[in-house]
């Protein structure tokens, strides 16, 4: 496709996302759902104006990167460390429960061991972009329950990659590749640990004295660079972007970074969410077998994360703990990547892939709809506790 065609597709995505966002805001519903449905509307399943392609996929990835970079910019490291124990428990329990539930259900309905392992793995990782957008939209990123979700999402990503490395190694070679797994663990710990250590230096960093064009230019380069470094290690790029934003969180007011970076995010993030809709293959979701199995897997996926989040964050109170659990529920593209790897390795067939697709779609839609009233209920409880 030539340049004009790509520009038209970006135009259709942005226009549809803006119109649907306006409608959902007027209906007092989460804007992010409108943006996802905008992608369904203009994508191959309905109007066929927009199709998957390298350029749109890259813009969508940049959208996710800048969304989490912006969220990191609004999150101070000391706030994350203050809820570190809860975040760790939420991540561990939120990986264990869905994995075991998905694996056992796969065996129960007749899947072989390997497809069952891939099904359990597809339920493991949280796609925090959806939740982060809702938290940002409602202005509650500074709340302890929001910080637990964000901290747990970073740990969750590392744990999810380890599980995936184990299962994918078994699929390819028939054995666990211990060396590769240990390397992944070590690199992940070093990456996150280095970001934590650097945060103390960044507090005093004089950006105006650095040999760069502007503090904003340095900030943008840092965000993209951290995302690229995370991807090189094997982590999700959004984890690096989030940590990059957190490095600059103490400097955002001094150098007025928030407004211009938010402008970039406002352009790119809707493309990310709309492309979630473009990728949906609606025809694959509605065979009777997929509907039944997909519904059960979706319930397992949601309950596993809700239970893990609830138990891990219970020290924050019942309302906040429940909000954390629901906030960890969306799976997004990570589940599809796991299923696609299983498909490529011959460990998962088309029907089993469609079941994961069903789960991804409905966990992605469930979380924003459930989070908005749940956060309102939680905020009422926090206000009442202060009175």
Automatic annotation (TrEMBL):
<keyword id="KW-0406">Ion transport</keyword>
<keyword id="KW-0915">Sodium</keyword>
<feature type="transmembrane region" description="Helical">
    <location>
        <begin position="290"/>
        <end position="314"/>
    </location>
</feature>
<keyword id="KW-0050">Antiport</keyword>
<feature type="transmembrane region" description="Helical">
    <location>
        <begin position="55"/>
        <end position="75"/>
    </location>
</feature>
<feature type="transmembrane region" description="Helical">
    <location>
        <begin position="179"/>
        <end position="203"/>
    </location>
</feature>
<dbReference type="Pfam" id="PF00999">
    <property type="entry name" value="Na_H_Exchanger"/>
</dbReference>
<protein>
    <submittedName>
        <fullName>Na(+)/H(+) antiporter</fullName>
    </submittedName>
</protein>
<feature type="transmembrane region" description="Helical">
    <location>
        <begin position="87"/>
        <end position="111"/>
    </location>
</feature>
<keyword id="KW-0813">Transport</keyword>
<feature type="transmembrane region" description="Helical">
    <location>
        <begin position="148"/>
        <end position="167"/>
    </location>
</feature>
<feature type="domain" description="Cation/H+ exchanger transmembrane">
    <location>
        <begin position="17"/>
        <end position="377"/>
    </location>
</feature>
<feature type="transmembrane region" description="Helical">
    <location>
        <begin position="31"/>
        <end position="49"/>
    </location>
</feature>
<keyword id="KW-0472">Membrane</keyword>
<keyword id="KW-1133">Transmembrane helix</keyword>
<dbReference type="GO" id="GO:0015297">
    <property type="term" value="F:antiporter activity"/>
</dbReference>
<feature type="transmembrane region" description="Helical">
    <location>
        <begin position="215"/>
        <end position="248"/>
    </location>
</feature>
<dbReference type="GO" id="GO:0006814">
    <property type="term" value="P:sodium ion transport"/>
</dbReference>
<dbReference type="GO" id="GO:0016020">
    <property type="term" value="C:membrane"/>
</dbReference>
<feature type="transmembrane region" description="Helical">
    <location>
        <begin position="6"/>
        <end position="24"/>
    </location>
</feature>
<keyword id="KW-0812">Transmembrane</keyword>
<dbReference type="InterPro" id="IPR006153">
    <property type="entry name" value="Cation/H_exchanger_TM"/>
</dbReference>
<feature type="transmembrane region" description="Helical">
    <location>
        <begin position="353"/>
        <end position="371"/>
    </location>
</feature>
<dbReference type="InterPro" id="IPR038770">
    <property type="entry name" value="Na+/solute_symporter_sf"/>
</dbReference>
<feature type="transmembrane region" description="Helical">
    <location>
        <begin position="260"/>
        <end position="278"/>
    </location>
</feature>
<dbReference type="GO" id="GO:1902600">
    <property type="term" value="P:proton transmembrane transport"/>
</dbReference>
<keyword id="KW-0739">Sodium transport</keyword>
